[in-house]
Design a protein that fits this description.
3% of the residues lie in helices and 47% in strands. The protein contains 1 helix and 9 strands. Keywords: Nucleus.
Length: 152
């Protein structure tokens, strides 16, 4: 299987909130722009989330995520579904509260242990829910989010 980035111009993305509704400075597009100085910054509240609606069915193999330390999630829930179906839980992820890039693997690769596991699943929609924010007000800051796998 050849892995490739699955988030592209045809991927419809939504987020739960944007800090002060300032989409120009903190909008969802900044998670995918590969710019180290921009980020998505949620507003206050519990259970912030990101949804990705792919243009065609994909098999997710890896998730790369970079939080701002102090504004990360203690637990992330991954849910997915095929078109016309209800979201079902795929897995829980337990990222660290650090600024470094964190990478998940669907399977162990090259003898490396995964920071957290992603169950490889064919889907059309992926939802990542950020629970238990390390920020007192429930804000989440994501500098980089990349989903890798294959288009089916």
């Amino acid at each position: 299987m050849t892995m490739e980035p699955l988030v592209c111009a045809d991927t419809a993305t939504r987020v739960s909130s944007v800090l002060n509704r300032d989409v120009k400075q903190f909008g969802k597009k900044h998670m995918f722009d590969a710019n180290e100085e921009t980020c998505w910054n949620s507003d206050q509240g519990s259970h912030q989330w990101v949804t990705l609606d792919f243009a065609r069915t994909v098999r997710v193999s890896q998730l790369h995520i970079q939080f701002q330390g102090g504004f990360s999630s203690r637990r992330c829930t991954l849910e997915g579904c095929r078109t016309g179906e209800e979201l079902v839980k795929i897995s829980d992820l337990y990222p660290e509260d650090i600024h470094a890039m964190q990478i998940s693997f669907g399977t162990l690769q090259a003898g490396r242990a995964a920071l957290f596991q992603v169950e490889e699943t064919a889907l059309d929609k992926l939802k990542i829910t950020f629970e238990n924010s390390t920020d007192f007000f429930g804000r989440i800051v994501v500098y980089h989010l990349q989903v890798l796998g294959e288009r089916l």
